[in-house]
Amino acid sequence: MAPTTSGAATTSCAPLLLLRLIRGCAALLAVVSLALTLWYGIQERGVALAFGTLIAVGELSRWTGAPARQAAPLGAAGALSYALLGEVAGRPAVPRAVDSAVVGGTAVATAQVVTVVLVASLLGSVPHIWRGRTPTLDHLARRVLTVGFAAVCFQPLDHRGVFQTWTGPSHALLVLALLVLTSLCDAVLAAALAHSRTRWPFAPLLRDELRGLRGIGSAVCATGAVMALAVAVAGLWALPVFCLPLLLTQLSIRRYAAVRATYRQTIASLARATEIAGYTPAGHARRVAALSRAVGRDLGLSGPELTVLEYAALMHDIGQLSLVDPVPAGATAALPAEEQRRIALLGGAVVRQTGVDAAVAVVVERQADPYREQPVAARIVRAVNAYEEKVRDAGPGGPLKALEELRLGTAGDYAPEVVESLARVLWNQRCGAERLGQGWWRVTGGTV
Questions:
Q1: Which of 117, 386, 414, 427 has its CA 20 to 30 Å from the CA of residue 174?
Q2: What is the pLDDT of residues 209-257, one digit of tens each?
Q3: Whose CA is closest to 122, among 233, 33, 16?
Q4: Sign of the dihedral defined by the CA atoms of residues 220, 223, 225, 227, in that order
Q5: Is the distance from CB of 345 to CB of 374 less than 8 angstroms?
């Protein structure tokens, strides 16, 4: 068949253009801020040094383990508090007016905030850049744009015009309102960057980011607001005092993440039991879990739903341990429907005995039911498992042939929306591999 490329080209180019736009805006803001700061000089150098040190320390303590929505909460809180800082012990923290124009004074104040945050973040990111552990460029772009947004919103309002008489509770309400807007801006940026890197749908990513604001995001916002208000009254001595709770929170989150990682490793070890016993090929459960999670992302599943899906995909074949005679190559998709259901029920019983979440057991038990009666996670596991079994050792044309067989089975075995989502995910993976110079096959809506 002739290749169809117009829709695929649009899908391939749009995330890249968005990524370049975000990075370009961040680079432009950084260059302009550096130029203005060098021209006018740094005002209140002690304040700038104190907040710069705080931000650098926060970046040095950035979490380099599993992905997190806010990898450097202390640095983020310090940057936000500096952007929303109007006074230090009763005197201006940044120049409110370099000349008679309010716009000019706002621009210089914003430029100084962005410059201090950028330089401190770069200094704190040096070890991470050296080790290549995190996407530092995207992290810096997000930090610069978020802080620039907060400063641009705050500086024209701070003790000017209608807000000139806003003190005490009124000023605190202004800071909190701007923090809410800044948090929404940061969530949009984080979702856009994740969409650009992974090609996952934007709406579910944004939903997860907004949901994450209730956790560490709310702690960062609260700490940033409290530090800005406390420094305005008590001076720079308030910084170390109000940083301690956030540091303890960060430590608790790391420990919780370590427990979750250990839990996942335990489940992965249980899933490998079928491979060690020779019931399934090596790496089968891991491949099904990775592809199932990608399909779940494409279909818009939330974070908790994706976790259940991943665990169920890892353990979907564990029922084969109860069989006297192993299924050849562990290929359950070719078995009669009743035999598939029997193995699935056996697997669900095993999962329940391990103490894993009951929702995982339900997905494992129902993976062989007619797709109209299945939950979404079970539909995904069934289709992805069948695809992985069909494509195994099938040669260069195997992926396309496997997808065509799945499409032919959408009348009763496989959910059509899951099969089409699987095709999209495979196409996106192929596009990413092409950028790395690898030769992958292409699937675009059933045409090749």
A1: 117
A2: 888 777 777 888 888 888 888 888 888 888 888 888 888 877 877 787 7
A3: 33
A4: negative
A5: no
